[in-house]
Amino acid sequence: MAYSGDFSTANSPISAELREIPGEAFPRLTPEMMARIAPFGRRDQFDGGEYLYEVGDREVDFFIILNGSVDVFESDGHGGHAIVARHQVNQFTGELHHLSGRAVLVCAQTTASTSVIRLSRVSLLRLVNAEPDIGEIILRALILRRARLLEFAEGGTVIVGSCRSGNTVRIQTFLERNGYPYRCLDTDVDHDARAAMETFHADADSLPIVVLNGVRVLTQPTNHDLAEALGITERLNSSHAYDVVVVGAGPSGLAAAVYAASEGLNTLVIEAVGPGGQAGTSSRIENYLGFPMGISGQDLARRAQIQAQKFGARFAVAEAAWRLDCTCYPFGVHLEGGNVVFGRSVVVATGARYRRLDIPESQRFEGKGIHYAATSIEAQLCEGTEAVVVGGGNSAGQAAIFLSAKARHVHLLVRGDGLSDAMSDYLVGRIMQSPRITLHTRSEITSLAGEGYLSSVRWGQPGKEESEHTISNLFLMIGAVPNTDWLDGCVELDDRGFILTGYDHDGAPNGSLYATSVPGIFAVGDVRAKSVKRVASSVGEGSVVVHSIHGWLASNPVSRETADRSVAFEDASGNSL
């Protein structure tokens, strides 16, 4: 199918100010712009019917058409394809993966003898930053093209499984957080899903499966399996010591990546799931500066990632940090898959996670009715039913309001006497005025029940009669547990596990606000002790910490000994990326 017309639906992956103006996704550059672009690339010639690139190719060049034309299409793996666009004279190929070097999602094939200007990924980034007016046209087009793929995906990646399954939700979340187009066939209601199970010889015990290009089948894949199979992981140089290794891609980590990369520091971001962190689960943030209509946490994170990539930052996604070695320099960040990356400085931005319910049955319903995020994926599960949100902070308030648009009714449970102490006033007002949200103060959940999946929740006030409700979706947004287990005792923590900061470069107190007890290792955002748990403050910390990083790097210049140490360590460990 060819994509045309307006695609600004309620579920569009881009926000209102990025809605497409006709022609912006496939602009035609002026002759004057073409002349400025020419020095960044080289001319090349292709016969009709030649592929410029195919689905799955990495580090694909960027092509600008001088004459001839190029068709771009999705492949279904069986020789069929859905046409996405036809690029003609002074138009260009590409979408967001051209910025990162990840595996591309589409094929490009000449329709006739075609001459082009071709730019490598490095040359493209140099062009985007050196010629801002051209760069804006290119970046906007790449973003809009990805939005079209997300909105109208036909072939490519298909998930087959029950939408109530925690594994299915996890896979959907991983793909959405990484801006990867897919279709989901729900085996509970979709006849196409049952046909797909027969075609790929899948039984109920093997679900969910992920079908790639109609050919390859992944059975209950992990996030890392998916990332490898789809080419979302980037190929990194294990013998290279990065100036900055940022661990975590929430607001603070993304801000650190943008500012570090924009100031010329060689930057790598390590992220276990996908950009956004806890903020990525927020359906709409309305008090973030510069977005009067609000913005979803996922959209904000996606923009920040593109911004960081524009300046040359690299992202290692689905690569959870397992251990930090602070006994060597450069520091070694060991990843769960067994690889190691090295950094002359490390920014810990791993944030915090919500607490789990302290009742015996809760573990049984993890991924089977208990949720820790309220995005469009979870909201669909609540359509026409009642749901419960537990928590009194902004995240819980945003979730209650967002879910109330889909659910028949939302119950909001808090332990305290009300909401005003921990929640923004605009959220409190909306909750109190909504006929579809009921606030239950001084209330706690006492038991959960269900066979296979959650089906009922009991709650009440201490010392008073409890009530039981038919509930199949429970959202927990209570407390905060810092993600610091992987630090392996490297830095000083407070009694709750948050990272203590404020040390100078000698490891003594009263130095940089974001410096940990180990010189060269910094902490920002929710993982830092005494930080303000707000998106804006996290972004501020991530941007300001780069000043301290510059000071550290200036006092610890690169030497042959420093550069070779990571190589020697890599050789000795036998690991490579």
UniProtKB/TrEMBL annotation:
SUPFAM superfamilies with a match to the protein in the record: cAMP-binding domain-like (SSF51206), FAD/NAD(P)-binding domain (SSF51905)
Entry-linked PROSITE patterns: CNMP_BINDING_3 (PS50042)
Residue ranges annotated for the Cyclic nucleotide-binding domain, each copy included: 25-145
Superkingdom of this protein's organism: Bacteria
Keyword list, A-Z: Flavoprotein, Oxidoreductase
SMART domains noted in UniProt: cNMP
Gene3D superfamilies reported for this sequence: FAD/NAD(P)-binding domain, Glutaredoxin, Jelly Rolls
GO MF, any single term: oxidoreductase activity
One Pfam family it belongs to: cNMP_binding
Name of the protein this chain belongs to: Thioredoxin reductase
Native source species: Rhizobium esperanzae
